[in-house]
Amino acid sequence: MPHLVQSAIQPAGIPAASGSGSRVSTQGSGAPRDGPIWRRNDMKRTMHCPSCEDGCEFRPDRRTEEREIRGETIVLEIPLWVCAECGETIADEHFGDPTEKAFDAYREKHGLLKSSEIQEIRTKWNLSQAAFAALLGMSQATINRYEQGALQQKKEDELIRACANPAHMSSLLQRRGATLSDRQRASTMAALEGVRPVLSWSALVDAMPSEVSRRSGFRAFDYNRYAAVVTWLCSNVALVTQTKLYKLLFYTDYLCFKTHTRSLTGALYRHMPYGPVPVGFGTLRAQLEEDDYISVDEAMFQNGNFGEVFRPGPKATEVEAAFEATELRVLRYVRDTLGGLTPTDISDRSHQEAAWKDTPPKEVISYEKAAELSLSIPD
Ligand SMILES: [Zn+2]
């Protein structure tokens, strides 16, 4: 005996007939159809009838239709309009695609997510279809089909449903985040932590400290200096990814402060899951790309993952900032000690720093923590 699912779908503007038993068919195929549903007179409407080739009065009716979905019979009641003159029927324009309606009825019965809910879970974490699929170990085509209305299996439904939970998504990102590009990972992390990205140049400047203090590294933020350090690192270190670049910048600024009581760029860094990250990094990166100081390319690494590689841009040599000898010494030291590390290794190393450990998540790391840095410039 197949399961029968009652569809409570009503055409727009037509109230359910109460207690008439005509609303939903609970019979299988071959069951007698309920008689015509005559409701209040104002439910009739005049429309053009293609058979009579004239404007005719139509009354609302329904027909039942059965769909087989995974071995179950779903009975749909499809609203329609019947010509009072000739009996011609016209579909109700508010009723959607019967196949979709049948899928929805099946989803409701089995507690499966709707297509729109799948999309909501994905976009909640700023994930592209490709990235969401990669995290779940599915293909992008599969996610795309589900969002277009294809019926998911129970197992896939459970995998996707779990992602609505931030703790689950966070753990998934920890375990499988390497399958994503740096940019995608940062975007999802920002969504997870509720950090709004700094979107404009003026907002970035506002976020930087105006007061020059010990906490801010005794230097106001200087975009030209920041650009000069980024282009120097991209020119002198092999395979600079976004994660790696931000750790190299952090070590450069904090080592400079530790050695000379002044940071190199004036940038501030936040405690983020993969280590310290400059405040406003997204805006800064966009500006560096726009100025042609850097170019970013997608590349495949030896482990088979795709990621972004930062290289000096066409105008990298035009950056107007000169380093003092003491600053250049710090840069070379960072290149020689940390330049060969993988993004994961340098991220792990930054997690051991008191500067990161003693700062709460998302908070700005004080330059006062530079004294405890694990590295020191040799005398
Ligand atoms: Zn007619």
Describe this structure in words.
This protein is of the alpha+beta class. It folds into three domains: 4-110, no CATH class; 115-180; 201-372, no CATH class. The protein is built from 14 helices and nine strands. The protein has helices at 98-110, 115-124, 129-136, 140-147, 154-162, 166-176, 182-193, 201-207, 223-236, 242-260, 281-290, 325-338, 343-351, 354-357; strands at residues 4-5, 45-49, 54-69, 72-83, 89-91, 269-272, 275-278, 294-300, 306-312. The strands form three sheets. Strands 1, 2, 3, 4 and 5 form a five-stranded mixed sheet that branches. Strands 6-7 form a two-stranded antiparallel ribbon. Helix 3 crosses helix 4, helix 6 (166-176) packs antiparallel against helix 7 and helix 10 (242-260) crosses helix 13. Residues 49, 51-52, 56, 83, 85-86, 88 line the site of zinc ion.
List the main descriptive attributes of the protein structure presented here.
two-stranded antiparallel sheet, single chain, alpha+beta, 3 domains, about 375 residues, elongated, 14 helices, binds zinc ion, 9 strands
- Our count of domains comes out at 3
Continuous helix count = 14
Largest sheet: 5 strands, mixed
Secondary structure class reads alpha+beta
Q: Give helix and strand order, one letter per element, not per position.
A: EEEEEHHHHHHHHHHEEHEEHHH
Shape: elongated
Percent strand equals: 15-25%
Radius of gyration: 31 Å
Bound ligands, named by name, code or SMILES: zinc ion
Mean pLDDT: 82
Q: Pick out the low-confidence regions.
A: 1-41
